[in-house]
Design a protein that fits this description.
By secondary structure, this protein is of the alpha/beta class. Helices cover about 45% and strands about 10% of the residues.
């Protein structure tokens, strides 16, 4: 048999915001598809209509657009294997349910919730399986006439998969190796419910993956217990030869303690667990997102990629192209990955450092305007370039660099006491006179002229520069002095010197 074309899928349920763990699963599917010249399909698993949340699907799509994860087909992208929403595939699923029933590989069960509860009370650790099904109300214990009568009378029923006991089911997992589970521990899973004429996840997932020619199923570890059931379903349909290969990814774990990462952990420790800000239409609750918190999408991608996967080198900063080139499912960890949100900040800082200043300026301008300043783009670009190494988030940049846009109204007491000497007013007025006579106010020219003046006068360089900084910034921080004065321009620089001399004397 020739090598199958790689086709993978990401299939979220539209039940709310997309968890960052789901983003990582989609990312790994994307990297795998791109590395192998394959296709990534976007499917919506909406068989549980009671959990549907308006706006969730649009939110998920917008998240991936922001992150740069591109799908090749599926919901909103088109393709030859649609429809891609499970709710639009009812007739397809019913056909395959009927096949299992006709072949005796599934059966109809009429047990009410009350009857099931009574059985649970009667039998400890009750499981609907080979040991109990013949004592239940189903098509295995009722006559064909009784079954038809119940259906015709509108009785609610489910279709259960008939699992034979005492069989070792082998699941070959790319990450975990061979997993063997005895079928006796599996119950006769519900595959279809008459109440809404929709299948459960297990059946829909198998049928969709088969019909859409999915070659690899890359999903979270939480689905590993279901994998033996899925293998048995593939076998029941006679699809073993085209069954996808499985890879179950390690869980994302709490930053502290044990257990799976949850939204509560993010709320408790102050970091987002969703890619974008989410406004819950039911509760009205607003949850923070990586985008709105000031993360660059490339930083989020890089951070997530290394949570549970190792490129085999010590390199940490990896572009999407590099991730695609290096990605290997066999290098995924079997153990869960601690969610280190401090590391996420580090990645964001690194990406800000290496990002294009103009692109960062476009992000920063709304913040500048929000502080009542209408600054020219070129000035913002220059300021960003000078100050971006001091922040992990663009939203923190204003506090760091606002002196470029707003003259100081007060002067830091501690800095003034230390840096403003008795002769500082006189020296600053002298400096102002030197600056006044400079026509070319570029950084290089200012520096050359002022440095010569200091040398000629025999002044202490530190005393001049510290006092100069205090006049322009209002405290003892900021980049190289002539970087500051050249951005401010001659008029503003002189204005600030004269004011400081007047106020501080």
């Amino acid at each position: 048999m020739s090598e199958r074309k790689v086709r993978v899928r990401f299939a979220p349920s539209p039940t709310g915001a997309l968890h960052i763990g789901g983003v990582r699963t989609a990312l790994y599917n994307y990297l795998f598809a791109r590395q192998n010249g394959g296709e990534l399909i976007f499917r919506i698993e909406d068989t549980d209509s009671s959990r549907f949340v308006p706006g969730a699907e649009e939110y998920i799509l917008e998240s991936f657009k922001w992150l740069g994860i591109k799908f090749d087909e599926g919901v909103s992208f088109g393709g030859n294997y649609g429809p891609y929403r499970q709710s639009e595939r009812r007739d397809i699923y019913k056909k395959y349910v009927d096949i299992l029933l006709e072949e005796g590989k599934a059966y109809i069960a009429f047990d009410t919730p009350q009857e099931l509860e009574a059985k649970r009370n009667e039998i400890s650790n009750f499981q609907y399986d080979a040991s109990t099904r013949l004592s239940m109300r189903n098509s295995l214990t009722l006559s064909k006439e009784e079954v038809n009568e119940l259906i015709n009378n509108g009785s609610q029923y489910v279709v259960r998969f008939k699992i034979e006991p005492n069989e070792d089911v082998h699941v070959n997992d790319i990450i975990r190796g061979e997993v063997i589970v005895n079928s006796s521990i599996l119950d006769d899973k519900v595959l279809f419910k008459s109440s809404d004429q929709l299948p459960t996840y297990h059946l829909a997932n198998i049928v969709d993956d088969h019909l859409m020619e999915i070659s690899h199923v890359i999903r979270g570890e939480e689905w590993l217990p279901s994998a033996p059931l899925h293998v048995l379903l593939y076998r029941a349909f006679g699809w073993e030869d085209t069954m996808p290969k499985f890879a179950h990814l390690p869980l994302l774990l709490k930053p502290d303690g044990n257990g799976k990462l949850s939204k509560r952990d993010g709320d408790r420790l102050g970091f987002p667990v969703f890619p974008l800000e989410w406004h819950d239409p039911k509760s009205g609750e607003v949850s923070s997102g990586y985008r709105e918190s000031g993360y660059l999408p490339e930083a989020v991608i890089n951070f997530l990629a290394l949570l549970g996967w190792n490129p085999g080198t010590n390199q940490e900063i990896l572009s999407m192209d590099e991730l695609i080139q290096l990605f290997d499912l066999t290098h995924c960890s079997k153990a869960g990955a601690k969610f280190d949100f401090e590391k996420a900040k580090w990645f964001n800082h690194e990406y800000i450092l290496h990002a294009d200043n103009r692109e960062l300026a476009e992000m920063f301008i709304p913040i500048v305007k929000g502080n009542g300043i209408d600054a020219p783009l070129e000035k913002v670009v220059t300021v960003v370039g000078l100050m971006k190494d001091r922040v992990s988030f663009m939203k923190d940049l204003w506090d760091t660099c606002k002196f470029f846009f707003v003259a100081p109204e007060t002067y830091d007491e501690k800095t003034t006491k230390k840096r403003w000497k008795e002769d500082s007013p006189e020296m600053m007025l002298e400096l102002a006179a030197v600056l006044e006579n400079i026509d070319d106010f570029s950084l290089e020219n200012q520096e050359k002229i002022v440095m010569k003046w200091i040398e000629d006068k025999g002044y202490h360089l530190g005393n001049i520069m510290n006092a100069f900084r205090l006049t322009l910034v209002g405290e003892g921080k900021g980049p190289h002095m002539f970087d500051i004065s050249s951005v401010l321009g001659k008029e503003e620089t002189l204005k600030r010197i004269y004011r400081a001399v007047e106020v501080l004397k």
